Amino acid sequence: MSHRDDWERAYRDSPQRDAEPTTMSGVPVDPVYGDDDGPFPGQFPYTRGPYASMYRSKLWTMRMFAGFGTAEDTNARFKELLRSGGTGLSTAFDLPTLMGRDSDHPFALGEVGRAGVAVDTLADMEDLFAGIDLGRVSTSMTINSPAIILMAMYMAVAEEEGVPRAELSGTLQNDILKEYQAQKEFIFPPRPSVRLVTDVVRFCTAELPRWHPVSISGYHIREAGSTAAEELAFTLANGFAYVEAAMAAGLPVDDFAPRLSFFFNAHIDFFEEIAKYRAARRIWATWLAERYGAKAERSLQLRFHTQTAGVSLTAQQSEVNLARVAIQALAAVLGGTQSLHTDAYDEALALPTEKAARLALRTQQVVAYETGVVNVADPLGGSAYVEWLTDELERQAEEIFDHLDGLGGGSMLEGVYRAIEDGWFQDRIAESAADYERRLNSGERLLVGVNAFTEGDEGEGEILYLGPEVEDTQRKRLAEVKAARDSDAVDRALRQVTSDAADPTVNLVPAVLDAVKARATEGEIVGAMEEDFGTWVERPSV
Predict the structure, then answer these.
(1) How far is CA 66 from CA 40, 69, 319, 341, 361, in A?
(2) Which of 5, 38, 152, 530 is the most buried (most CB within 10 A)?
(3) Alpha helix stretches (DSSP H) within 208-251
(4) Which of 279, 273, 252, 259 lies closest to 216 in space, CA to CA?
(5) Is 527 within 8 Å of 493 (Cβ atoms)?
(6) 99 and 187 in contact (C-beta within 8 Å)?
């Protein structure tokens, strides 16, 4: 029996979204093309895609990233995106929330609600998802160091609405390792931080079967200046590290690996991005099977969300960003993404206006419903260039894995810890970023509207403006919650968090959930964990 025979059987068992698609001119197209000896989409090592039918069965989730101002402001944007055809929500939190600081903390001054939504207590999470059915909408939350707290708030809101935990679907980013490597939104040292990630994985494995407890993120590594190969390798190395941490905590790999997901960047080098996604699937499947002993098909199938490259957007001639985003979105789809966020053209200037966010969503809809690229799985598979580039990116990634494995004495988890502590990741990214800037400054690489074709920059249109009243409103809201809550219940809950943090055999999720329900603030819960975990200060490598 050939690979094609196996694929056809799997394809027939898949639900079909459309009957017999054709080109615009009416030419019928097959769902896949390739030699009979394959491999095909849905077949190990999944280079050509995780599913036999790919977008013939189901389009990717159009998950638009949104968050600004107060919870009420973002709730209105969520509802507008859903009315416009979005099929999932993705929540951006402001910097104080990302850093575990309440809106009334001195460090939060001037940052409340600026780059995302401010969430201090369960009351804010209630307002954020008011009128949205959490049992039907898939939600992603881009939060890392305090991820366990925000997930607890989300579960508490669902409980209030009568939605069982088993029905919640979505993704918690919860990828702390890349924070030390690239984004720098860390609070605690690496080892207790990974313990928090593992606690969430254990809890979700037991109680939230439709929830992805960690989204292993290369996006921010690329945004910080890495190459495509470094994004690929660092991301998967972090994924292997989480696998080892969960297995060390006693979880069988096939119990949790099916719920791990990934988050990649879609940059502007069209074919390199497509090859990166194909290589990622192949590496993950091979390593999970051969090194970690995974047997379940779902454990081996790397599934990922993609966001177009924010760092590629320009303030100069910002409308040109519409073209950049469309090309990047097309690369993500041709690479087989499972969900996608498209950046708004004005994001180099400010948070997106409602019109710009809608245009970004419309870009995805044009790709999905007008171009025909969804009719064939892995349509670029078999291209000599794409296949070579896939192999080359895999080769470069394996070199990095060898280095990390050596650092860790045969453990990827220990190798990643060592490379963080020694500054190796940070140095590699800084070198790649500097090299790119040198090529831009010399004119070796052209950037339209910046160092080439600069005529026609007539200024920008409307941008979103957030005034100081946002911070005033949020601080007042926080003060009201603190005044109305049972202070003794808050104190008891926070003491339990500190006690459980000190015992690595105890899962912290239940204690954090109780603290959230008592109306403890995010900053208070972080402080309770800090008593045992301490804080992390990055040390320069030179």
Answers:
(1) 36, 11, 20, 10, 12
(2) 152
(3) 219-223, 228-248
(4) 259
(5) no
(6) yes
542/539 Cα distance (integer angstroms): 9
Rounded Cα distance between 98 and 118, Å, is 9
Neighbouring CB atoms inside 10 A of 193's CB total: 23
Hey, is 145 helix, strand or coil?
coil
Rg (CA), the chain: 23
Q: Is 75 left (phi over 0), alpha (psi -120 to 50) or beta?
A: alpha
- Establish how many alpha carbons lie within 13 A of residue 293's alpha carbon, considering only the half-sphere containing its beta carbon: 6
Contacts of residue 279, Cβ cutoff 8 Å, sequence gap at least 6: 47, 232, 390, 391, 393, 394, 397
Half-sphere exposure of 119 (CA within 13 A, CB side): 32
Cα–Cα nearest to 46, from 251, 300, 327, 323 = 300
For residue 117, what are the β-bridge partners?
69, 93
Residues 89, 347: Cα–Cα separation, whole Å: 18
* CA-closest candidate to residue 178, choices 99, 94, 234: 234
Going residue by residue through the chain (542 aa), what tens digit of pLDDT does each one get?
A: 689 999 999 999 888 877 789 999 999 999 999 999 989 999 999 999 999 999 999 999 998 778 888 999 999 999 998 998 888 898 999 999 999 999 999 999 999 998 899 999 999 999 999 999 999 999 999 999 999 999 999 999 999 999 999 999 999 999 999 999 999 999 999 999 999 999 999 999 999 999 999 999 999 999 999 999 999 999 999 999 999 999 999 999 999 999 999 999 999 999 999 999 999 999 999 999 999 999 999 999 999 999 999 999 999 999 999 999 999 999 999 999 999 999 999 999 888 888 998 999 999 999 999 999 999 999 999 999 999 999 999 999 999 999 999 999 999 999 999 999 999 999 999 999 999 999 999 999 999 999 999 987 666 567 776 778 889 999 999 999 999 999 999 999 999 999 999 999 999 999 999 999 999 999 999 999 999 999 999 876 65
Residues in the chain: 542
Cis preceding-peptide flag for 39 (omega within 30 of 0): yes
Contacts of 124 (CB under 8 A, 6+ apart): 70, 71, 117, 118, 153, 477
| pTM, full prediction | 0.94
Question: CB within 8 A of 505, min separation 6: which ones?
Answer: none
